UniProtKB/TrEMBL annotation:
Segments forming domain ABC transporter: 5-235
Pfam families: ABC_tran
Source organism per UniProt: Actinophytocola algeriensis
Keywords: ATP-binding, Cell membrane, Membrane, Nucleotide-binding, Translocase, Transport
High-level lineage: Bacteria, Bacillati, Actinomycetota, Actinomycetes, Pseudonocardiales
InterPro entries per the UniProt record, alphabetical: AAA+_ATPase (IPR003593), ABC_transporter-like_ATP-bd (IPR003439), ABC_transporter-like_CS (IPR017871), ABC_transpr_CbiO/EcfA_su (IPR015856), ECF_ABC_transporter_ATP-bd (IPR050095), P-loop_NTPase (IPR027417)
GO CC annotations on file: ATP-binding cassette (ABC) transporter complex
Name of the protein in its database record: Energy-coupling factor transporter ATP-binding protein EcfA2
Amino acid sequence: MTPALLVKGLAFAYPDGHQALYGIDLRVEPGERVAVLGPNGAGKTTLALHLNGVHTAGAGTIEVAGLPVTKVNLHEIRRRVGLVFQDPDDQLFMQTVGEDVAFGPANFGLKGAELDARVHQALAAVGMTDHIDRSPLHLSGGQRRRVALATVLACDPEILVLDEPSANLEPVARRELAEVLLSLGRTTLMVTHDLPYALQLCPRSVLIDDGVVVADGPTGDLLADSELLAAHRLELP
Ligand code: ATP
């Protein structure tokens, strides 16, 4: 089967010369939910930003559903890879929730009834239909994060990439978001520091440190390995 995501030998240095990734290999099958774990500065966000075309690889390749990202334009990469940023403010900038969710699919050519249906579907998937006419500014942190998720779901991506989805959420919002993510049934790569969230949502985890993959396996096995966690400055609460 063609993998949903295939990353081979991905290396990247920032313009100041800081080498953030040293040859990342990662394969994600369709329907899998995989957590990307690692201490501060490990390279998790840098990896996520490559998948969405924000950064361009110094070396290596990335394929999304069999298509090399270098072969398609940025517009198309962003339709295929739904990146949900850590801060919903980076994704919500229109006057209403409905306008924010319509922005992506409208950009990709949907209009009229088809566009409306897509917006409603995406908002229903995150439990935010009733808020369609509200300003995103008037929503709670958890609601804003779910609307940010709807903005990418509305583009029907091949893979969702979530950067720290549970950061700064209070327990109820955290649980609501987990329920939504589990109900979507979508291929998902989730960058997180939140080890219990990884365990709850992702059967598999990849541990990155210093720009290399140091472990890849069932999340329960990784988190049960106290020596591995300690070696990479990770701690279960
Ligand atoms: P965190 O969990 O703290 O968000 P991370 O695993 O997501 O960390 P990255 O943000 O990908 O790590 O950073 C990887 C390395 O690249 C770090 O050493 C970081 O300091 C460095 N880095 C990140 N952004 C830049 C930048 N714009 N310019 C130079 N170096 C950067």
